[in-house]
Specification:
With about 400 residues, the chain is an alpha/beta fold. The protein is about 35% helix and about 15% strand. It is built from 16 helices and 17 strands. The protein binds adenosine-5'-diphosphate and 1,3-bisphosphoglyceric acid. Keywords: ATP-binding, Cytoplasm, Glycolysis, Kinase, Nucleotide-binding, Transferase.
């Protein structure tokens, strides 16, 4: 893979595919970790005299503009973080390949930075049809002379800006991708054991598939968050109105059976925190949740965090691990009533000590997991590595060819 050093960028329009998919509360960015992670590559390009065209997705709009997913607040924050290297300002294009994008890119001076509007406002970005994606990539290619792939969190997506565009322009990998791959590679080689993997979050259908592979690598797999209820259902328990991937229940039953054969330990919640409905994350008003046994979730109630006994169990299962990979919050940590499980697991990572002595090597992956660690007040430097990609790092660990990495190869 070429790096930025292999490109002559001065005076050239350089398209940087970043992952600036940050959590928002209205138009307020609640955690800017992914923007901070994107800054070094953008700054280097700008300081080398490139005209930098930054692009990203945010959330999952359905191929048309939706104001709540606008990247406008991100442009402002990116300008603040880049500071003097761009005069504190990043020009924002209110579309991706339309008049605003053409005009903004056209008026860039050497060393200037622009951010395009959300790539997913265009159906071509995520289309499964190669020709439709290709046509959108052709339009994007008109905006740039060179391509730098640096959106690690999206490299597992076969999307136009990630996969098709680099085929149309001279390309290189940015510094963030190089760092992420460098660290995660360690987890695919000889890991120190016991190796524990913690999985949670809400992207259940996306991430259940990786368990098949993780079972051949990890000694223990701890399941929480929205992921837990498909497992509890597979064990024959009712899960009320909790997040459930019904069509995956048979597959999960298979994982549990195979894990026994392989001697891999699955750790599931023994109790869960439930409420009648999903909490209002804006108001953050107390919701009066109750804790119930995981095998006795009442009909109509929704599991929103692992319970206190599960927190203790998970901490104990992490305590003697030598290597830990964690993706996905244990509960709806954005609301204080459902943050305890995520806090317990984060603390568990920090307290873990390998049987041979010394702190465990810990990796936290995922936009929300990384945000949770910071928002709950943990020092991000206390972890071995905080990856900007959740699904991306899981698929990397699986040994899959990731479209956004394959496309950067020569
Ligand atoms: N039991 C649950 N029910 C619904 N959503 C949940 C539950 N537990 C966690 N979540 C949500 O999962 C989201 C993060 O999931 P995900 O995107 O998969 O993680 P990451 O971004 O770290 O990869 C958070 O917004 C959190 O509120
Ligand atoms: O947030 C992301 O992934 P993650 O939640 O797995 O860390 C990336 O920005 C990818 O987003 P997507 O899962 O909507 O393609």
């Amino acid at each position: 893979m070429k790096t930025i050093d292999d490109l002559q960028v001065a005076g050239k329009r350089v398209f940087v595919r970043a992952d600036l998919n940050v959590p928002l509360d209205g138009t307020t960015i609640t955690d800017d970790g992914r923007i901070r992670a994107a800054v070094p590559t953008i700054r280097r390009l700008a300081e080398a005299g490139a005209r930098v065209v930054v692009a990203s997705h945010l959330g999952r709009p359905k191929g048309a503009p939706e104001q709540q997913f606008s990247l406008a607040p991100v442009a402002q924050r990116l300008g603040e973080l880049l500071g003097t290297s761009v005069g504190g300002e990043v020009a924002f294009a209110t579309d991706t390949v339309g008049d605003s994008a053409k005009a903004t890119v056209g008026s860039l001076a050497d060393g200037g930075v622009t951010l395009l509007e959300n790539l997913r406002f265009n159906a071509g970005e995520t289309s499964k049809d190669d020709a439709v994606r290709g046509a959108f990539a052709d339009e994007l290619a008109q905006l740039a002379d060179l391509y730098v792939g640096d959106g690690f969190g999206a490299v597992h997506r076969k999307h136009a800006s990630v996969y098709d565009l680099p085929a149309r322009l001279p390309h290189a990998a940015g510094g963030l991708i190089a760092t992420e791959v460098g660290v995660l590679r360690k987890l695919t080689e000889d890991v120190r054991r016991p190796y524990a993997v913690v999985l949670g979050g809400a992207k259940v259908s996306d991430k259940l598939g990786v368990i098949d592979h993780l079972m051949t690598k990890a000694d223990r797999i701890l399941i929480g968050g929205g992921m837990a209820y498909t497992f509890l259902k597979a064990q024959g328990h009712e899960v009320g109105s909790s997040l459930l991937q019904e069509d995956q229940v048979p597959a999960v039953r298979g994982y549990l059976k195979r894990a026994k054969e392989l001697g891999v330990e699955f750790v599931l919640p023994v109790d869960v925190v439930v409420a009648p409905s999903f909490p209002d994350l804006k108001a953050k008003a107390p919701t009066g949740p109750e804790t119930v046994a995981a095998d006795a979730i009442p009909a109509g109630l929704m599991g929103l965090d692992i319970g206190p006994r599960s927190c203790e169990l998970y901490a104990a299962k992490l305590a003697d691990a030598a290597t830990i990979f964690w993706n996905g919050p244990m509960g709806v940590f954005e609301h204080p009533d459902y943050a305890a499980g995520t806090r317990a697991v984060a603390q568990g990572l920090l307290d873990a000590e390998a049987p041979s002595g010394g702190a465990a090597f810990t990796v936290v992956g995922g936009g929300d997991s990384a945000a949770a660690v910071r928002l709950l007040g943990f020092d991000e430097n206390a972890f071995g590595h905080i990856s900007t990609g959740g699904g991306a790092s899981l698929e990397y660990l699986e040994g899959k060819t990731l479209p956004g990495l394959a496309a950067l190869e020569d």
